[in-house]
């Protein structure tokens, strides 16, 4: 309770521990005059959702707020206006989102899929039981930055790397690939690092992301202080596990804050995440500003600051290759819905093709 609330004798809203605040109350005011109830979506399942309200958890139908745009469907973490009664009971409106974690679907229709809404921290869980995939971590972080949330990398199962020097080396590798992002080694089994993670998530809403077998459910249980999520053993051969979590659940943490647990993600496609990619590779974009040519491709151009950093050992070659890969993928996704960008890409392909042919003809001429 805030000091002002204590002084005035005003009790905090029962929804405060779900993240309700004065700004949400202001956004909800027009719906309050219509007799609707504010609530937060804690689970969505086939056109129905569970909504946490001041009076408890209500089951509601989303038929009135199911738009054609898949990015606007009701999602776990949304704040909504729900009918006080009725059979069935309906969600009548969604409040504007502050943040949204979106990935590209695996379908050929180039649709985005929203995984969580109104998130303050995006926690990327990475298991130390298997070899680190830095490229996948960078991919998760690009989406996390793009969402508007603060990314955090949790290196789970840290107890499986008992050697302190080895563990420190792994943390450093991830920190190099995650500029500006906290990297926390955590062991849910031993409790090491859990207090730091609990402090991070206590100040708002966090979404827990990662592949199957990353230990998300175990971390969730540890933060909750009880076994709420099912946990299954991972395979020894690749460290992967089954999808013990099949839907996204919003859970109130005893130490403060709420956590959205998500199913294991096999694919993490970018979705209009150009800004996020830039933040993940901030050091490359900063170096590029010192290149001699503003359109430098960082290949063999004279005066390339990026290549100079690679040659000096200050920038790993892998980082540049990962940067290029994610930029190409993101450009491809955006181009599917942007005719102007598609035309620019085709024009660039033709230009590069002409340059390649000219270089080939020059070589053949010299050979003669």
Tell me what the structure shows.
36% of the residues lie in helices and 19% in strands. A six-stranded mixed sheet has the order 10-9-8-11-13-12, with helices on both faces. The protein has a five-stranded antiparallel sheet with strand order 3-2-1-4-5. Helix 3 packs across helix 7, helix 7 crosses helix 8 and helix 10 packs across helix 11. By secondary structure, the chain is α/β, with parallel strands linked by helices. Strand 8, helix 3 and strand 9 form a beta-alpha-beta unit. The chain starts with a helix and ends with a helix.
- What is the number of strand segments? 13
- Average pLDDT reading: 83
Order of secondary-structure elements: HHEEEEEEEEHEHEHEHEEHHHHH
Helical residue percent? 25-40%
Backbone shape: globular
How many domains make up the 3D coordinates?
A: 3
Spans where pLDDT lies below 50 across 5 or more residues: 1-9, 232-245
How can the largest sheet be summarized? 6 strands, mixed
What is the CATH C-level name of the largest domain?
A: Alpha Beta
Tell me the strand order in the biggest sheet. Answer: 10-9-8-11-13-12
**Strand percentage:** 15-25%
Q: How far apart are the first and last residues' alpha carbons, in Å? A: 85 Å
CATH architecture of the largest domain: 3-Layer(aba) Sandwich
The CATH superfamily title of the largest domain: P-loop containing nucleotide triphosphate hydrolases
Structural class: alpha/beta
CATH fold descriptor of the largest domain: Rossmann fold
Number of discrete helical segments: 11
CA radius of gyration is 24 Å
